[in-house]
């Protein structure tokens, strides 16, 4: 009896295998494609500074005790939110006005509201430190700033007619990430 059950079980297994192999099945395959057979495209985000208006800035005929301001606008063209930073490089004349100039940056939040981003600082500090201008700037946004220059009220005749020049660097980084290098050593990438 056990042999009969084993034989029947073997026959049932063979019938199941044979019947599965002999039945046809329906299927369909479709190639999904866009232009030029590009069904899937991968593109990384970009962190990009667009137009920067307001430069070059000329602070001219400055007098001791005077606070002089110029506006700068920065358009952020990245595809993902970014943080903006301000830095400077020495071009010439640092010794001519050393110790009598101070710089501060103000951000305009609207047409009537603003706040100071920095206090008064030595322009030379901008050569080694990236100054945070704005965090989490949305793609396509334009942000507005004022650069203020103060001539020390105790500047004497030795500073008459002197000139100094700085280069300005704006750095954009992916929101929440650290800056690259410092202003005096950063290489401006080509894209």
Structure, explained:
By secondary structure, this protein is mostly beta strands. It folds into 2 domains: 36 residues, no CATH class; 126 residues, Immunoglobulin-like. Helices cover 13% and strands 34% of the residues.
List its salient traits.
Immunoglobulin-like; five-stranded antiparallel β-sheet; three-stranded antiparallel β-sheet; 191 residues; mainly beta; single chain; 2 domains; 2 helices
Q: Layout of SSEs?
A:
Layout: H1 2-22, E1 49-53, E2 67-76, E3 82-92, H2 94-97, E4 101-108, E5 114-116, E6 131-137, E7 142-151, E8 165-174
In short:
The protein is mainly beta and 191 residues long. It has 2 domains: 2-37, no CATH class; 49-174, Sandwich (Immunoglobulin-like). It contains 2 helices and 8 strands.
Q: Which blocks of ≥5 consecutive residues have pLDDT under 50?
A: none
CATH topology group of the largest domain: Immunoglobulin-like
Percent range for β-strand residues:
25-35%
Oligomer: single chain
Structure class: mainly beta
Please estimate the helix content: 10-25%
Q: Assign the CATH class of the largest domain.
A: Mainly Beta
Give a short account of the largest sheet: 5 strands, antiparallel
Can you tell me the CATH architecture of the largest domain?
A: Sandwich
